[in-house]
Amino acid sequence: MNRVFLKKCECALDIGDGSERGLYVNQDYILGKMKKIHRGISLMYTYYPKDKTWPKRACNAFETEGPVDPWSYPYENYFPYMGGTLGRTDEEPFNYMKEIRQHGMDVVLTITMDPNLTEEDIIPVAKDLIPYGRVFLRINHECTGDWFCYTKRAGYEKIAEFFVMVCKVMHKYAPNVLMILCAGMWQKDTGKLEMEDIFLQAHKEADIWSGDQYLALNWGWPVDLTCKTPNHACYDTDEVYDKAKNTWLRLKEITGQDKPMVLSELNADGDVTGPYEQANLMKHFMERLQEDKDKWLMGFTAYQFRDDGRLGLEITDPNNSGVGIEQPLLKTYRDELFKPFFSQKLESAEEIQLPVKMRWGNSEDAEGFEIDVEVKKNPHYAEVFFNDDLREQNLIFEFGGYWFYKKSGVGKIDFMSYFFDNEIKKPEKYKMRFFAPPKDGINTKDSEDWMKNYYTQIKTLPEIRIEYEPVEIKKK
């Protein structure tokens, strides 16, 4: 048994899970489809606690006949953030945030907010987020546009000032939260960012710079169900890539700072390109990233896992919103997800003995243990048994690049799915790496660094069962 470290990759991948365009999909389903954890899961909510109709979702508070533009309501048609001044932290998004962290990933939280809220309205939000370790928080994204409802309530100067205020509140009350500013991007005709002067101080206060950029988009959805309308666009992928990179370069120039850059929403819309070219465009963009020696992008969020339109790895089955229909993009994206450039690094260290103290910082900073597993040929049974104290632990483990989750109270996990996809041609020794994310999805006040780290101690090792023949076969 050796110690093993989970470290960041060259470019992180997050994935969107629910928005105005689709419902949240549980992490067990996503992991089963993707076979690998992401750095983070992106959730999208809205916070207008002083509105009379709050906290009803906009489409329920303002009923209309037929589909409407999701930005035509008084506030955005995301699901309401039930924390903050409401204090309902046992509801959305906190139930999902806990599940995300239990599965070994970080929360990437987008909230659109009324820009007229005060510090007193924001401080409770900061306090909500303290137990969730590293949280990426993006507020009032695409803030140089005019389509979001919050832009109807304040001018751009006020929106920029509001972002700075929220940054200061988060840095004071929730230092575990990293603030993302998703603002205007580089413009080829001027060589500048959209509204760069207005948002300069906001860029300086942010922890991470960001932009949203689609390779193709039907922004008329859901009113325009096909691409045969003027409300769509399809861009040159190389020009999109250069625009995003130049945004980062320009931000460094005007701020005098060097901060990480992410793309918080990226995809090609199958409404416009169809399903095959959608996959090709994303693959090309991801290949450009891997070929670029500058390594300028910290990560991006694929928007999104399951979509009611055609912006997802799956599209929602119209007969049952709990069912997804896999698109060609899913396999293409999954193939890229497994490449070393987009994969967290696993580094083996010294030999250790029981009991073992495991540390979970975040999806790019954790300490666990690894054991050797010898595989002689294709097995018929491959299982991990968790006995004694291990049964009650919350664990994730990696085998051959595939990741598996074990919930607290579960005593056995089948990992045959790896062998279904990977034929064993000769005897080989594998590493099985175990980590312990927070059991309840939140950090507990049991150490001086509890806001940053979660600790678990184990006293026993898992037992591996591998068998190479069926129990019995009736021969004809």
Q: How does this model look, in words?
A:
There is one protein chain. With 476 residues, the chain is of the alpha/beta class. It has ten helices and 25 strands. The strands form five sheets. Strands 1, 16, 17, 18, 20, 21, 23 and 24 form an eight-stranded antiparallel β-sheet that branches. Helix 4 crosses helix 5 and helix 8 packs parallel to helix 9.
Name the features.
476 residues; alpha/beta; 8-stranded antiparallel sheet; 8-stranded parallel beta barrel; 10 helices; 25 strands
Helix residue percentage: 10-25%
Overall pLDDT level: 96
Number of strands: 25
Unreliable runs: none
Cα radius of gyration in angstroms: 23 Å
Q: Largest beta sheet, briefly? A: 8 strands, antiparallel
Summarize the structure.
By secondary structure, this protein is of the alpha/beta class.
Task: Itemize the secondary structure elements and their pairings.
Layout: E1 2-7, E2 12-16, H1 27-34, E3 40-47, H2 58-61, E4 79-80, H3 94-102, E5 106-113, H4 119-129, E6 135-139, H5 156-173, E7 177-182, H6 200-205, E8 208-212, E9 216-218, E10 232-234, H7 237-255, E11 261-266, H8 270-291, E12 299-302, E13 306-307, E14 314-317, E15 320-326, H9 328-337, E16 345-351, E17 356-362, E18 365-375, E19 381-385, E20 395-399, E21 402-406, E22 412-414, H10 417-421, E23 428-435, E24 454-458, E25 463-467
Parallel strand pairs: 2-3, 2-12, 3-4, 3-5, 5-6, 6-7, 7-8, 8-11, 11-12, 13-14
Antiparallel strand pairs: 1-16, 1-18, 9-10, 14-15, 17-18, 17-24, 18-23, 19-22, 19-25, 20-21, 20-23
Helix pairs in contact: 4-5, 8-9
